[in-house]
Each structure stands twice: as structure tokens, then as C-alpha cells.
Amino acid sequence: LRGYNTTFHVRDLINSSTVNEGLDAVRDFSFKNLRVKNPTYKVEVENFEFGHRGLLIKNLQYDVPESILINLVGLKLENVRWSESGNSITLDGLNWKNIRAEIRNSEAKSDNSKNYEETQIPGIFIKNIRGGNANFLFQKEELTIHSLLDHFNLDAISFTDSIKLKGIDIVGNSLLLNA
Predict the structure, then answer these.
(1) Residues in contact with 154: Cβ distance below 8 Å, sequence separation at least 6, in sequence order
(2) Please, what is the Cα angle at 77 between 65 and 35, to 5 degrees?
(3) pTM, two decimal places
(4) What is the dihedral sign for C-alpha 17, 20, 26, 30?
């Protein structure tokens, strides 16, 4: 972690009784570079800024070798809000300039010994998604899906016990499907 800076209101942070009040107490949290590398994944973040519940990231790369690769340029999130019960998070105003996302076949095995209720994974709601250029690749065994998009707009998406999309607007120049 390099170039770290933070500003917060101590009294507001100490007196906060919810996650949202704690987030409101943070006025500024930023760093220039963050690199995390271990045998299973690598994360690199450049120019991260969080304040007033929104965030900006100049560049983000997340890589799980032979499984997932995500490169994001110009990521902006306008608002983050946790439900008071802590069982859901809402992200509002998600934008990016460029994204490259690859999901590749992996031999990695997941631990299915816990069901959804036991793991208590929060519901995720994302609203007002406005994406620039997007390059998506999905490969699994004999199936390949590849798309190049000029923009990717979505009014809302929710991840709970199912995935729901609302108001999708996609413009692109390439869709490749090999099976």
C-alpha cells in the first residue's frame, strides 16, 4: 500500500451505531497503489479514492490464474448503502470507461458444504449502471462466448437467490458464440 491518506470525523465514527453512519464519518480515504499477490489470486489497484459514500478507481486488475481476469479503467461508484439489518448492500451510479472481463474454465472446486442461509451472503442491488467499452469473454469446455460492446447500460440488477435485470441497453459490434 503506497500513498495512503484518510480523513474522518472521530466523534461521528465513535458515535456511529450502523455501517451507514460509519461510512458517513469517513470524509476521505485514498491511496495511490495497492498490490496483493498470493498463490491463488492477484489484485492491483491504482489511484483509489473513497469519500461521501462514493468511490473512484483509476485502474483495477483482479486475476485468478486460469479462472477469472477483470481489468477496469475509470471505475466510479456514486453511492454505497448497507441495509440496517446488514443483509443487503445497494450500489448506485456504477460507471466505467473500459472493462475487460474473462471467465475461463477452472478445475477449482468450490465448498458447497454451506447453504445460502449459513453463509449469510448479503443481497446485492446495483442501480444506474452506465458502462463504456466492454470486452467480455466466457469459456467453459467447448463453449465460448465473446462480445465487444460500445456501451452497457442497465437500470438495475439484483443478486439475491436469483439474478434479476431491469432496463438493459447494450450497443456493440461483435458477438461470437462457439459451442
Answers:
(1) 126, 129, 165, 166, 167, 168, 169
(2) 35
(3) 0.75
(4) positive
Identity of the amino acid at 105:
N
Rounded Cα–Cα distance for residues 57 and 121 (Å): 25
Planar angle of CA 2, 103, 109, nearest 5 degrees: 95
The per-residue DSSP string of the chain comes to: -BS-EEEE-HHHHHH--SHHHHHHHEEEEEEEEEEEE-SS-EEEEEEEEEETTEEEEEEEEEEETTTEEEEEEEEEEEEEEE-TTSSEEEEEEEEEEEEEEEE---------SS-HHHHTPPEEEEEEEEEEEEEEEEEETTEEEEEEEEEEEEEEEEESSSEEEEEEEEEEEEEEEE-
Q: Could you report the per-residue pLDDT of 8-49, keeping only the tens digit for each?
A: 888 988 898 888 888 888 888 899 999 999 989 999 999 999
Q: Which residue has the cell 491463488?
A: 40
What whole-number distance in Å separates Cα of residue 40 and Cα of residue 49? 26
Residue 87 backbone dihedrals phi, psi, to 5 degrees: -100, 5
- Which three three-digit cell numbers place residue 103? 471467465
Given its phi and psi angles, is residue 22 left (phi above 0), alpha (psi -120 to 50 degrees) or beta? alpha
